[in-house]
Amino acid sequence: MFTPMQTLRTPEDRFANIPEFPYAPRYCEVPDDDGGTLRVAWVQDGPDDGDPVLMLHGEPSWSFLYRKMIPILAEAGYRVVCPDLVGFGRSDKPTRREDHTYARHVEWMRSCVFDVLDLQNVTLVGQDWGGLIGLRLAAEHPKRFSRIVVANTGLPTGDIPMPEIWWKFREAIQNTPTLDIGRFVESGCRRPMSDAVRAAYDAPFPDDTYCVAPRAMPGLIPTTPDDPAAPANRSAWAKLCESPTPMLVAFSDGDPITGGMAPIFQSQMRGAQGIDHPVIRDAGHFLQEDAGEELAGHIVEFLRS
């Protein structure tokens, strides 16, 4: 018997006291690949006619992660667009783990930024899952993208073993009885986090029934060569290696999960050649939280070069 996708929507009052994040949410509907629709949220700033900078967050954060960067890029004249991935932030949250697949997350974001927003001449900024999804979009729709920024991310194909610390993270987030999202984000940072900021990361998840996406995402990363997502990622990697699209590799110095990818991007990507790639010092996995202003400055410099 067919059962349509079940979703939860975080009550708006959960977002009433978010610090340093004055952006009004915007919403659209995208097909859920199951006969229905999902509401996807985004925030934006900067001139409507500016070249778009698409900033994609990862797991288990939301667009709030980019709050230190949005005003800097907007002030520089760019149209900054920060969506919430399905299952995160203000976007709808499918409640069954099997509703989340890598292919669906790519398609949900593609539908939002291309079918609805019709973004062209895009600069992608992708961290964590924001890179896993965004790099697929950049490889599969190259005419839409003018530049790429990779920051503490990758494009796993299952051909190279994941680091031991990632397996421990996956085990923890999948099996902890109650997820403390704010603490998970804090554990991926190097610098102190206030109670208010930690609460802002918790805001999209009133209780554990809303946490299906954070629990599901680690299991969607290809860890074996025969993973369902591996062929598409392998194809995307090959296309990106040959792509002339300029690529800035802006990784932190303190990310044990993705740190090893920085030299691989720098050496294998054609678009990364001849570019001065920064290292963000004293920053962890969530470098936007630890050093967002510094990262934004490097991106503006890259865009103007």
UniProtKB/TrEMBL annotation:
This is Haloalkane dehalogenase [Amycolatopsis mediterranei S699]. Keywords: Hydrolase. GO terms for molecular function: epoxide hydrolase activity. It comes from Mycobacterium shimoidei. The lineage of its organism: Bacteria, Bacillati, Actinomycetota, Actinomycetes, Mycobacteriales. Pfam families: Abhydrolase_1. InterPro entries: AB_hydrolase_1, AB_hydrolase_fold, Epox_hydrolase-like, Haloalkane_dehalogenase. Residues 52-161 form the AB hydrolase-1 domain.
